[in-house]
Design a protein that fits this description.
With about 240 residues, this protein is α+β, with helices and mostly antiparallel strands. The chain has eight helices and ten strands. The N and C termini lie far apart (about 50 Å).
Length: about 240
Amino acid sequence: MTSLAEIMHGQAGGQPLYQRLQRALRTAIDQRLFGPEQALPAERQLAADLAISRITVRKAIDGLVDEGLLVRRPGSGNFINTRIEKNFAKLTSFSEDMRARGRTPRSVWLKRSEGTVTPEEALRLRLGPGAAVYRFHRIRYADDIPMCIEHATIVAACLPSLDAVQVSMYEALEHAHNRPVRALQRLSALLLDEEQAALLQARVGDAGLAVERLGFLRDGRAVEFCRSYFRGDLYDFVAELNAA
């Protein structure tokens, strides 16, 4: 198996050393060089193995902890964060969030269809009766772990076809020059019902998170209405607050 030193030394230069180490650690995590329950080598050991200073190692680790990719356990070391932290104030897709943390996003499609808006969809998306929409119902995975159930409705005029969405809905919208630039999101707690628990490989009554998102284009038009149900044991939503 490729070592962390080999990954780092195989990189092109041009970046500060701590950023190169961060990039190497992300690659090592993506390649499963470190397991989720296995502590990373101690900072002193990393510094010795890579022939760099402990200050550089600490700065690299601090950045990955701030990103949520790593978590510090006092007295135990640094571990891959198996919980996903989603910045509630940043409009990114599920796929982008997973890739940024060294995870592989994928979907299991439950249903995709096209039709006309329901009264609720028309109200949310500010569309007239009979407007065409695409609906996507799927389970979103990080690696092989089911993270959420997603029900999304997209204004049909914003995508070239129903099949345009493969892995990432936002990538498909971006290719069509209709990616949302802002969104309103509502977060609430729930207990998973029998169907949700079965799809998410959880237990009936486990804690979950329901997230509704309404995404808008730059000109103010609504483009997506999405309702997702997340496993509460694996997903955290965080937001930075500032005093007025």
